[in-house]
Amino acid sequence: MFSIIQAAGWPIWPLLLCSVVALALVLERFASLRTARIAPPKLLDEVLAVSRNSLPAPDVVTKLAQNSVLGQVLASGLHAVISEPRISENALRNVFESQGAAAIHKLERYLNTLGTIAAAAPLLGLLGTVIGMIEIFGSQSPTGGSNPEQLAHGISIALYNTAFGLIVAIPTLMFYRYFRGRVDDYAVELEQASERMVPHLMRFSVRTPLHTAGTPSSF
Q: Where are the membrane-spanning stretches (predicted)?
């Protein structure tokens, strides 16, 4: 491997850096986007069951927020109803939307970097190819002779960098698309869970009585 790096010349070093960063990000995303950490399958049903007859205690809501990303979204709605019993449905939906947007932003962390590496790696390989071609042309002397060693080195730079750029770019692009799909799936799950929680929590909202025209309100 070291001999290949030597033959590929200095243009391969940015590609090696990109490969290390991409590998680290892929491993981090696999660990962070696990279903148990984002949206446990039975969590929503458990929350609905616990709050069927009354709102849970604040410490229970705090533990729910620490459970997962879905738990944070559900806990935000519970906390909103507990802190403001007269909350309107639109205000409660806004709470869920705000917390959901923050959760999705957190899930998308590092994906732009992964996509950038997938797009930049072939260009870095092309840069190595151009530098290799310059070495090849530089091996030709004005008198018609050539330097075989420089010619071979130029060919090595061009071919190795082109190949390594594709080797880095293709898997990185595949993982980027895979993680993007998982984030989209989680976004749908969070949205559906919020839609189920809104009418459930509105049962605990204290309605402000409506007064007919001309009838004074009592204090």
A: 12-31, 114-137, 157-176
